[in-house]
Amino acid sequence: MCDQCLITKEMIIDNLQKNYFVNYYQPIVNVKENIINGVEVLLRLKNPLLDNVCPECFIACAENENVINDLFFFSAEQAIKDISNNKSFNKLSINLSPKTLNVPNLYSWLKDKCNKYDIKKESVTLEITENVEYVETDISLENIENLRMLGFGLSIDDFGTGYSSYSRLKSMPFTELKIDKMFIKHIKTNNSDKKIIEHLVNLAQILGLQTVAEGIEDLETYHIIKNLGVNLCQGYFFHKPMAINDVLAL
Ligand code: C2E
Ligand code: MG
Ligand code: MG
Ligand code: MG
Predict the structure, then answer these.
(1) Taking every annotated instance into account, which residue ranges of this chain make up the domain EAL (predicted)?
(2) Is residue 3 part of a domain?
(3) Whose CA is nearest to atom 36 of ligand 1?
């Protein structure tokens, strides 16, 4: 995060109303078959007067100021709608703040949107991003249980950073473990990063989770990750996050 963005809650609401928030999509590649398996939705603020505001800053502000749910509902519905135009994607990953897990009936909202746009619930994975601490409540437990029962995937994003920890792995029925780019970045030269990833892949296999590595920027890194047995990869080496028309043209 940077201290130059200076974004406020009022600016977020205003930009949302004026349609300046846009979904970008980053392809996720299946390592074994070497094909694009799906996409992760990443929000962008496309206001020419605010083009320096980075996602990490507006997401952090939205979380702190309790407008993250507004961004979620906008972005998730748009993503489900966009993806319904390309049935060859069998995975849509949506970032979900722990705060949004405490929205009553989140699961039925998501179910309704999948039905409305004719998208399989099994193809939607919710990436729980723990930049803020998750507070377990009856509502969040009900959401998690129902989301899994309906077939939605649950991913533990940026595992090993922030609040994304072993205790969370224990308490939620995850289907996927996502390895943060900080463990990938120096893998060519840092043997302990390599060991950590080896360990994470092992752990995921034991727990029956699929693994995704983010932040793959070059071929050598990709080869190392592939040989360590990671299932899915994402990064600038393959594709940067892009507008929907660009991703549909791939
Ligand atoms: P994340 O979910 O871990 O997303 C991956 C971040 O890594 C994205 O940054 C992506 O653009 C970036 N990335 C992908 N490939 C590479 C690469 O090869 N190299 C490098 N250096 N970076 C790469 P982005 O889009 O800036 O998003 C940052 C974080 O903001 C996300 O991290 C996620 O936690 C959060 N975020 C973004 N959009 C949303 C959203 O709609 N809702 C929520 N709750 N969080 C969001
Ligand atoms: Mg993510
Ligand atoms: Mg991530
Ligand atoms: Mg990350």
Answers:
(1) 5-250
(2) no
(3) 42
